[in-house]
Specification:
Blueprint (H helix, E strand, L loop, with lengths): L6 H42 L4 H5 L6 H18 L9 H16 L1
Helix pairs in contact: 1-3
Length: 107
């Protein structure tokens, strides 16, 4: 299914994609900075409460936010970069063509 686009439409699509990538990298940087800061606070808090540094460092509760926020980052990465694990890039086009062919056979 060939789509003809004007130069302006291609520019707008490219600009939107660059903005989406930029937002992802800003979110990733925020994720790293905020979680590093929070983890440091949690670890030093645990050490002040009597845990050894090793116990505090490997305490799951200090790193839960990395895991759960990381799931969100992973979904955003899939959305941004279009990692098609189960489907090829032209999967949608093939499905559209398949359903159009089926509809034409019914008529």
């Amino acid at each position: 299914m060939e789509i003809n686009r004007t130069q302006q439409q291609r520019f707008i699509l490219a600009k939107n994609r660059v903005e989406k990538i930029s937002k992802f990298y800003k979110h990733l940087a925020t994720y790293i900075v905020v979680n590093t800061f929070l983890s440091a606070i949690f670890i030093f808090g645990d050490v002040n409460e009597g845990d050894t540094f090793k116990e505090a460092l490997f305490n799951y509760n200090n790193f839960r936010i990395w895991f759960f926020w990381g799931i969100g980052i992973a979904f955003q990465a899939f959305n941004t970069f279009g990692f098609n694990i189960l489907m090829s890039e032209d999967w949608e086009d093939k499905k559209i063509q398949k359903y159009m062919d089926q509809e034409n056979k019914r008529r």
